[in-house]
Design a protein that fits this description.
heterodimer, A: mainly beta, 7-stranded mixed beta sheet, globular, B: 111 residues, mainly beta, 6-stranded mixed beta sheet, 5-stranded antiparallel beta sheet, 11 strands
């Protein structure tokens, strides 16, 4: 099946700094990528939909200036958590969809801990 | 009412049992139905993907969709301890690929 790679798998950063998470589709071109956040024992919460070459669409309640999303190519989307705070500590997961189908594949996720 | 309802469990079964996992949904526009498996501290893994009503089988896994009752199921035959995970159902209408998720059901298969 299709492979979506996410990097880093885990990161610890100091409060106030920014952290970038990369999401790559390895064997297909992803016209659309999604960024999710998941708290322990809870379902995935969609943060934003990222379309290649255009601005991301953010879900209600998600601060676009805090969670910067860039989808500069058909194989790469990045999520930057700016001025991170401890409450931003979470599991961030990306997923990608190829243009011609409706199948969505997920990355392995990135654990962010803000201290 | 949530668009997709799923009992979070936990569900505990002995090894070799048949497992039945279910979701209900309310949006008649949903056409695509998916089951994902998520191990602890990992991203979800696509297990089954079904379009419209019907059954789909892949090894020990069978997915069923009944659009008339808005009910989707995942059956696991001969369950193994390695099947212990959280199983999430997801639906969408197919036009914008935004998935609507169930809460996930936590499954434990005991040796």
């Amino acid at each position: 099946g299709a492979v979506v790679s996410q990097h880093p798998s885990w990161v610890i950063c100091k409060s106030g700094t920014s952290v970038k998470i990369e999401c790559r589709s390895l064997d297909f071109q992803a016209t659309t990528m999604f960024w999710y956040r998941q708290f322990p024992k809870q379902s995935l919460m969609l943060m934003a939909t990222s379309n290649e070459g255009s601005k991301a669409t953010y879900e209600q309640g998600v601060e676009k200036d805090k969670f910067l999303i860039n989808h500069a190519s058909l194989t790469l989307s990045t999520l930057t958590v700016t001025s991170a705070h401890p409450e931003d500590s979470s599991f961030y997961i990306c997923s990608a969809s190829a243009g011609g189908g409706n199948t969505i594949y997920f990355g392995e996720g990135s654990w962010l801990t803000v201290v | 009412q949530k668009e997709v309802e799923q009992d979070p469990g936990p569900l505990s079964v002995p090894e070799g049992a048949i497992v039945s996992l279910n979701c209900t949904y309310s949006n008649s526009a949903f056409q695509y139905f998916m089951w994902y498996r998520q191990y602890s501290r990992k991203g979800p893994e696509l297990l089954m993907y079904t379009y419209s009503s019907g059954n789909k089988e892949d090894g020990r896994f069978t997915a069923q969709v009944d659009k008339s009752s808005k009910y989707i199921s995942l059956f696991i035959r001969d369950s193994q301890p390695s099947d212990s995970a959280t199983y999430l159902c997801a639906c969408n209408a197919g036009n914008n690929r935004k998935l609507i998720w169930g809460l996930g059901t936590s499954l434990a298969v005991n040796p």
